[in-house]
Amino acid sequence: MSDEKINEKVFVVEDDTDLSDMLRAYFQVQGYDVAHATHGIEAVDAIRKASPSIVLLDIRLPDIDGFEVCRRLRQIRRTRHLPVIFLTEKREREDKLAGLELGAVDYITKPFDIQELRLRVRNALRRAKLSSLTNPVTGLSEGAVVQDNLEYMIKENEWGVVLAGIGGLNKFRDKFGFVAADDVSRAVTLMINNAVKESGGEDDFVGQTDTGDFVVLTTADRAEKIATRCLMRLRPAVQYFYPAMERMRLDEVPASEKLNVRVASLSSNDGQFSTLPPLFTELDKRRRS
Predict the structure, then answer these.
(1) pTM for the complete prediction?
(2) How far apart are alpha carbons 63 and 239 in whole angstroms?
(3) CATH level 3 topology of 9-131
(4) Where are the domain boundaries for CATH 3.30.70.270 in the chain?
(5) DSSP per residue over 106-134, as a string?
(6) CATH topology of domain 144-286
(7) pLDDT value at position 196?
């Protein structure tokens, strides 16, 4: 057994039960969490819910093929960038190209060397970590990942976006320190995630913009509900971000010196946007506290 601590989840999509059992047992011994499915449609739903680190995907499945599984995963926000390694008996160049065009990170033909597969999985996970950008405090996606999701979103016919910001955080940090400010960011992250769970959907994406604002990508019918839920959670909580003694004197502090919450929502029902700057300009106009 590997003596390296691994906190990654491998999802195996394979209808050959003997091979599936072998892969599950092998990767579990290596320290991975392993889940599996034998059918394509079942796999898409399970992967969306399980949020694995990587998918080992057979092309030949009883219902839809692996290419269609990968295509559907790429259409779901939370699985759009999920690393996929195809497992197949097919060796034709066209099949390999088809998989790579769908964003597969690797392609290995059966029969394969299990040690080689393990190394391919390890390398794919390392590349995914290097290419993904997450905020070290909140753990949310930021930078290029958020930019990519936003640009993809505005090309769709139907979408919704929520922008939530915490004003005054820099002054709060100057007065109470980085630890206290980071605690505020983590608490806000938790409340926004809970708001999405209550009023959003399984495929909704939560990240952070370059300005530090929180952004939720959802559907047109859910955007306003999520924005309202965010305000309901954040408004009464702001005072509790302060130390107890400071909390008692908040009425004496000018509004410009205090933490504040501003939330806005926008959807495809309000118009289409070809680029992101006009989208954010409109969101800024709609912010309410």
Answers:
(1) 0.63
(2) 54
(3) Rossmann fold (3.40.50)
(4) 144-286
(5) EEEESS--HHHHHHHHHHHHHHHHHH--B
(6) Alpha-Beta Plaits (3.30.70)
(7) 95
Assign 3-state DSSP to the chain and report helix, strand, coil percentages, each to 5: 50, 20, 30
Amino acid identity at 95: D
pLDDT of residue 97: 63
Instruction: Give yes or no for residue 285 having a pLDDT over 80.
Output: yes
Give the Cβ contact number of residue 190 at 10 Å. Answer: 12
3-class secondary structure, 100: helix
78-87 pLDDT, tens digit per residue, is 787 889 998 8
Identity at 134, one-letter amino acid code: T
For residue 101, the model assigns a pLDDT of: 65
Q: How far apart are CA 48 and CA 222, in angstroms?
A: 19
Return d(Cα 242, Cα 202) in angstroms, integer: 33
Q: Per residue in 120-139, pLDDT tens?
A: 899 888 877 766 677 878 88
Can you tell me which residue has the tokens 């979103």? 153
Q: Residue for token digits 């919450």?
A: 261
CB 111 within 8 A of CB 23: no
Interhelix angle 114-131/17-29, rounded to 10 degrees, is: 60
Read off the amino acid at residue 272: Q
Which one has a higher pLDDT value, 88 or 261?
261
Q: Write out the residue limits of the CATH 3.40.50.2300 domain(s) in the chain.
A: 9-131
